[in-house]
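Section 3.1: Structural characterization of target chains.
Under the original work plan, the team committed to producing a structural model for every single-chain target entering the pipeline before any wet-lab resources were allocated. The record below documents one such target. The sequence was received from the expression subgroup and is listed exactly as submitted; it comprises 457 residues.
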Amino acid sequence: MKRALLVMLALVVPMLAVAQTPQELMRGGRLRVRVSTEPARQVVIGQQTRFFIDILTDTWFTKAPAYPELVLEGAIALMPEQLGTNFTERIDGATFAAQRRSYVIFPQRAGRLEIPSLKVRLGVAAADGKAGTPFTLRTQPLRLNVVIPAEAEGIESLVTTPRFRVRDKWSRPLDELKVGDAVERTVRMTADRALGMLLPELAFEAPPGIAVYTDQPRSSDRINRGQYQGERVESVTYVLQRPGEFTLPAIELHWWSSTAGALQAEILEERTFEVSGEWGAAPLLVPVDRWARWRARFDRLLAFIREHRLTLLLAVLGVIIVVQITRRSLPSLLGWWRVQREQRRDSEALLFRKLSNTAQRGDIDAVVHDFWRWRDRLAIELPLLTHGAMRHAAETSGFAEHWASLEQRRYGTAPPSSGSADLRPALQAFRTALLTVHRSQVVASGSSGLNPRGRQE
């Protein structure tokens, strides 16, 4: 009994010595988590702020980190990137594999902004190279000081951006206007590192005698490498109800330049114009509801239909014929489309493009998986290639040396690094060499005689 107990202890003690908890890894400096913001410490209300989470390990990741949604009181928080950024870093003479994920924050009120501790679930390899059990880490909380510049006190919906642009467009020149005319005005605002929904709402004013009808504002956002660009479009229609001289007041928009650190202003100049009509006559009663414009547009549509009724009738008949033909041939067309889609999905060129993109990201396991998928498809599409020809092409193109280095990083004791991105040019050279060898074998076997175009070439 004592001997059996000693044997069990001899087996368990080494296992306990190798296994390390996440807390032990962090205390030993082998697993590190850091958080930061850009800008750091203090930002202006509405200023785009990036919040970074870096996770570093001196082994390698066995499970990609899963990041939670960031919810902040008094701010808008977004996660623009779909994937994290992989990189390596030298710390105290050791190489650490790292992944960075960023959030974008737009503070909406002044004061202290608390970024709470976040839970991140991931997995890293143990000291012996074996895959450890996935676990959860917590980041350190951060505080940001959000301020309103003294020059911007009292400005509602302050826009903080390095670049703000306003364009004013009119549907027609403001001359030769008559009572009953309608003039449409569109104001387009764009701001870098801002959201469209945060751009200011415009107030369109007009003197008596001009009815004002505003449309629903439209906002949109574009994103490029984590940087937002917001756009807001507002439209208004002025309906001229009586003759005379009118002046539309100027519109002044204030914004804070995050690069110059100063308050800026964009001004849409006032517009003065004449509206002709018979003086002394009773003013034209123009409807003051939104349906006035729609009725005018409907009348123009009816006039267009009456003028082009023959052309429209032929167009409708053509559409009916096309629909009938399509309904009969749709099943065969769908079958052909599915076959083409499957062929494109499994083609050698598409699989190689996917392999090249995977090599750029640096995920070694994914590179190996995508390489053998491409290699199997290559054997199907290029049946004349022999193993000897492939081996020779790999050595002459330099791919064999890069592949051996990749396998050493995957199966050896050294941690993986971003050096797998160097595999892309070697892969391209390897594929070019294989295609060259295959073309020469096709010509030598006389198979080109089946293809007149290939024979001419």
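Residues 165 and 190 are 5 Å apart (CA to CA).
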